Every structure is written in structure tokens, then in C-alpha cells.
Amino acid sequence: MKKFPKNFLWGGATAANQCEGAWNVDGKGLSVADCTRYRKNLDIADYKAQHNISSQEILEAMESQDSNKYAKRHGIDFYHRYIEDLDLFQEMGFKTLRVSIQWTRIYPTGLEEQPNESGLIFYENLFKAMNERGIEPLVTLHHYEMPLYLTNHFDGWYQREVIDLFLKFCKTVFERYQGMVKYWLTFNEIDSVFRHPFTTIGLVEDRYPSEKLEEIIYQSVHNQFVASSLATKMLKEYMPTAQMGCMITRTLTYPEDCNPQNILLALNDNRKNYFYSDVQIRGEYPKHIKNEWKRKGIHIDFGDNDEQILKDYPADFVSFSYYMSRVVSVDISNKEQVSGNISSGIKNPYLATSEWDWQIDPTGLTISLIELYDRYEKPLFIVENGLGCRDKFESDGSIQDDYRIDYFRSHIQSIANALEQGVEVMGYTPWGCIDMVSMSTCQMTKRYGFIHVDLDDDGNGSYKRTRKKSFYWYKKVIASNGEDLD
């Protein structure tokens, strides 16, 4: 097996809105995440029901003080327990930890002239504690936690004024955390704008004519592209040696068979997925996207210098999440379907499927790494990868999650296979290194972590942390720099 580089960044990934809790503490404002709730008996195949938020539901959330119904409001109380959790990550040997900064902790509505000092102090203390433990912060600036005020008063990212508001936030954190953070990401899974526009760009679909939604979403993501490039420019001014990455979901699509029509269908799906990283790495829009806009009569407002800004300030590396692959066909009649919270398609008979209908495809990770590196020839960083499962305690108090170990073993082997092909991979941060509230279903019983958190779907529990069997296995993997996967 190809050896991992000596400086390979092993670690784990979190998101502030899913782990921090403390939703109304120390001056924090409401974010879009604070409006998402756990829905019992939800059909996992009903993707729209998992993610779509109506105007009425937003009003109800704004009037509610309930932190159990709205599970991300309590998270796993990382806000108060981060020292305990960092000690556990240090025990595992983490070289890096992916975290995010909640915009609403720094600027509660996004409009304030002065930042919230309590929020700045929290992240300063967090980063100091990470550095003291030899854990490199990998910080996402915008991870599904847009200020709700901007959703209600600026149409989310649809209004261009939000670019300047975001850059004010970036300037504040870059100034404050100089020398503390080397690796940054702008927008988490920026390609998810069509999958869940409320979560990604703060867009409430029932407020707009359905025939205009596609144009509105494209305009919103264009504004994010410009903001991402300008944030990259700003980072270099404050921290010349720091690096800024883009972040996409790798939604690898296979054709059902060698029917040329199926191959073309899969090609177009993968092409759409690459669009988001193409803009941020190559610095320009692919011609096929502009042709699509022309065919559909979609008009996107570009600022006078937008195209030059995109060209001048590309991302330094490509980071991505990888959970599953999908299969498409021009003929889906009478064929079994699967549906995760990322994409749906035809069931692949060669792959196992998780309880939440996610197809497990480690080879797809090798394919993704090779294709991304061939396309961009820039360093790659796998910043999310994992398996949601229902864990159980054994009679001796242990959690024997061999299924999770098997999953990670196969995917780490897939990274090694890509390294063998000459792919440059910076690091690997499995998603939910500690159990957190699920992004889509807002459940706790859909567990990803190496560390169990005593909390149920209704918000009941002691929040006690318990090491799973996979905790000790991953510790051994890191200590051996990926050589010992037994």
C-alpha cells in the first residue's frame, strides 16, 4: 500500500450549527440552522420534506424558545464542552480538526457595525486550545448557518449587498485570528444550492415565483463565487502564507450500463457537479453553463469586475465531501430507487446500502480523487466522509462499531490507491468525528462519530461522551500514518 505523506493531516470534521448549541447565549443571533427541526417518522426518501422550510415555519421558529424541537439549538453543547472534546481528539492523535465560525456569533443579524466580542472570544479560545494540543484548525467561514435576518430582509444571498456584509465578517475574523489558523474554506458544499437553497443560500422558496427560482438560485451562487474570491484576496493580505480552499460535494454519477444515452446522462451530471469547482479553481464559468442560461432565458447580473475577480483569486486547494455514488438511466421504469440526503438514483447492485439509503462505494473515492486531480492539478483535501448508523451499548458498556471501522478502512485504502496514482492529498477529516445532530434529519440516532454522545432525538440525555471501538482503531491508524488498518 502506498504510504501517506509525513505531513498528512489526519483528523475529523464538525460544523458549528450541529455541535455548538448555545443558540441564544452570549449575544448570538438566529441563523437558518436554528429554524430546522427534527421531524419524527419522516420518510428518508422524501428529500424535499427534509430540507424545505416555509415562511410560516420560519415565523414559528422565530417565536419559539424550544431547543429540543429545534435540535441544532442544543447541538451537543460543544460551546461549553469543547475542552473535553479537544482532549479526546488529542488522545486520538488528531493533526487537524475542521470547525466553522457561526456568522451570527460575530454579527448577530449581519448588519451590526461592531462585532460581538463574546463570539470573537469564544473562537479565539477554541483556536488557542487547539493549537496548544497540536491540532491545526481547518476553519469554514460559511457552513449552513447564515443569519436569519439576511434571509428575511435581503433574500439570502440573492441580493448583492450580502457580499459586502460577508466580507465585513471575513475581515473581522482574519484580523482577529492572524497566526492562529492556516487553513480556511469559504462555503461548505457550495454546489448544494439547488438541493437545499434555504440551508445553503438562505432562500425561502415560497416567496418567489416557481418559474424564477432557477435564475434566483444561480444569481445567489454567483454572488457567493464573487464573495469567495474576494475573501481569498483578503486572506492573503492579512495572512500571506495561509491557504484558502473551495469545498464541494463530490456526487459521483455512474451510467447504468454502456448504453451511450446513459453514458451521456452520467457525463452531464458529473459536469454539473464540476461546475462549482471549475469556477473557483479555473476562475471562469464553463461555456456549457452560459449556454444553458441562454437556452433557458436566465439572466445573471455580473458586476463590472466580477469575471476578473474570479480569474485573479482562485482557491489554493480543492476540498470535498464524499459519501456515496449514484447511478442514472434514461429508463427508470420499474427499477429500484435509493435516496440519500445528497442525491437519488437507481440502486447499484454492486454496492451495499446504509439504513438511510446511502450507497457505500469506497472505490468511488479513488475515482473521485483521480478525476479531480487530473482536472485541476491542485492539492485535494477530503474534509467529509462517513457512515451514519444506529449504535448500541453492549452489556459491558462498550460500543462495538465494527461496521464503522470496516467503512473507514475501505475508504482509507481508497485514498492510498489514489496516492499510488500520483494524486496529491493534503488530509482526511471524517465527518462527525463525535456524534452530532444530523444536518438533514436533525436526529441524534443517526450517528457518525468515534465518540458517543448521550443524547436522543428528542433532546434528552446527559451529554456524556463515551469512546467507541472505532475511537481506538482510528487512534492506531493515525499513529501509524495510515499503515496499520487492521
What features would you highlight for this structure?
about 475 residues; alpha/beta; TIM Barrel; 8-stranded parallel beta barrel; two-stranded parallel sheet; about 40% helix; globular; GH; 6-phospho-beta-glucosidase; glycosidase; hydrolase; Glyco_hydro_1_AS
Structural summary, described in words:
This protein is α/β, with parallel strands linked by helices and 486 residues long. It has a single domain, classed as Glycosidases (TIM Barrel), CATH 3.20.20.80. Helix content is 40%, strand content 14%. The chain has an eight-stranded parallel barrel with strand order 1-2-3-4-5-7-13-14, surrounded by four helices. A two-stranded parallel ribbon has the order 6-8. Strands 9-10 form a two-stranded antiparallel sheet. β9 and β10 form a beta hairpin. α8 runs parallel beside α10. The longest helix is centred in the middle third of the chain and has 26 residues. It is globular.
Give a topology summary.
Blueprint: E1 9-13, H1 16-19, H2 47-51, H3 55-63, H4 78-92, E2 96-100, H5 103-106, H6 117-132, E3 136-142, H7 148-154, H8 161-176, E4 183-187, H9 197-201, H10 213-238, E5 243-249, E6 252-255, H11 260-282, H12 287-296, H13 306-312, E7 317-321, E8 325-328, E9 337-339, E10 344-346, E11 352-353, E12 359-360, H14 362-376, E13 380-384, H15 402-420, E14 425-428, E15 451-453, E16 465-467, H16 469-479
Parallel strand pairs: 1-2, 1-14, 2-3, 3-4, 4-5, 5-7, 6-8, 7-13, 13-14
Antiparallel strand pairs: 9-10, 11-12, 15-16
Helix pairs in contact: 4-6, 8-10, 10-13, 14-15
